[in-house]
């Protein structure tokens, strides 16, 4: 039997746990010839020294001419919390923020989101908890510890299952989006094309 083609994909830890891993079995079943290696890191991937074939990252154009970049998801930020925290009256008002713990990640989007929903009105906020991974902030929200602000692609399934609810009616379009990136002339062009098409 021929050796399987090894392909290395670099993604952020949250993208790996909340999007990629749940969908991976279907892809691997359809492509048994590929031996996938997944590097989950916030560090910028180097296609040469890290032996990376494909990367998924939050980014903004323009990209270097040596890279092929396709938009994977636009990033819509959704404030979410456990249904246990949501009052019977429904979504919160900006004035309610002082009663809740805000769960931050390294992207620190809460100040911009608060300014968006509150306009010129000053809004008091309670203390927050800071995590270095978005997935940890989402897990804390699932556990009822506060409100997380996360990409819709990471929380849509939890919302659909009733594990999380939108804390506000408003969402916020982020300045960076998820892109799938590879070298314009990759080492394993056919395998890279398969994975890019699947993504």
Keywords:
single chain; 28% helix; 5-stranded mixed β-sheet; 199 residues; alpha/beta
Gyration radius (Cα, Å) is 19 Å
Molecular shape: elongated
Query: Number of DSSP helices?
Result: 5
Helix content: 25-40%
- What's the rounded overall pLDDT mean? 90
Number of separate strands: 11
Low-confidence stretches: none
State the secondary-structure class: alpha/beta
User: How is the biggest beta sheet arranged?
Assistant: 6 strands, mixed
What string, H for helix and E for strand, traces the elements in order? EHEEEEEHEHEHEEEH
Strand content: 25-35%
Distance between the termini: 27 Å
What does this protein structure show overall?
It is a single chain. The protein has 199 residues and is of the alpha/beta class. Helices cover 28% and strands 28% of the residues. The protein contains five helices and eleven strands. The protein has helices spanning 13-30, 110-118, 134-142, 152-160, 189-198, and strands spanning 5-11, 34-40, 54-59, 67-73, 76-81, 102-104, 128-130, 147-151, 165-166, 172-173, 177-183. Strands 5, 6, 7, 8, 9 and 10 form a six-stranded mixed β-sheet that branches. The longest helix has 18 residues, at 13-30. It is elongated, with a radius of gyration of 19 Å. The two termini are 27 Å apart. 27% of the residues are buried.
